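Known limitations

Structure tokens in this collection are predictions and should be treated as such. Users comparing against experimental data should check residue numbering before alignment. To illustrate the layout, the record for Tryptophan-rich sensory protein is reproduced below. The input appears on top and the generated tokens appear beneath it.
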Amino acid sequence: MLSVGTMGGMETALDTHAPVTTRDRVRQVTVLVGAIVAIGGAAVGSGAFGGQPIADAADGALSATATPLAPDTPAFSIWSLIYLGLGVFAVAQALPRQGADPRLRAVSWWVLASMLLNALWIAVVQAGSVGGSVVVILALLAVLAVVFVRLVRLAHTGVATSLITDTTMGLYLGWVSVATLANIAAFLTVADVGELGLGATAWSVIVLAAGAALSVAYAVFGRGRPSVVVPVGLAMAWGLAWIGLGRTNGPLVDETVATAAFVAAAVALVAPLITSVTARRR
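Generated tokens:
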């Protein structure tokens, strides 16, 4: 049994000497094969090897200039890092010695579900359904939230495996959190709901404030697990900053939204650092 500390009373002790079972081996192989299929499918569907890029799908509803909350094009390069991390995770969890790792047991199926949902999101967008993409990305966000909670509550096991898992899933959750806001904004635009009485700028600022608040909530909940919440904050800050940069040039210049996005990015970046340092001092 591994002795652990506490994170707001939520950490759980883990049995690191449990025997490897047939179910463990099935999980390892399934997650590895599923990851190859999901990552490969996502790459093909996103236009990495030719075909229609996501920015052009659904009549450009999710392009970098479609709404005031759309991140500028360079923001999406973070997917390369996330896919790399997911690939390394898939291989690491499949190693024979990792079969009984209790932390991997707790999250691997959920990580696979997230990869499959991401591939499904791409397929739905390529089919032209922006409304359907909102449903899928909300499901993806929920799955990643489950992974986040489990990683925060469960103690680290192997150093390398824990670092790979925490960093990758933190970046993944942070980016998808920002992408969800942008996706919903794209759907509302396509649905032609108008400016809902406040105007596009005011609503954008409200949504960005909500994004900043969400980053603080992640930081507070995961304050005892900086290896997870710092990557979450980095990815959210990255996405929010590129929303701001996207509003400083191009066809959708909006200084108010840009300022709000930069402030939200700063909050997302600093919040996990503050909460982690505070938790350690206690």
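For this record: The CA atoms of residues 181 and 201 lie 15 Å apart. The chain has one domain: 22-48+57-281. Please report discrepancies through the issue tracker.
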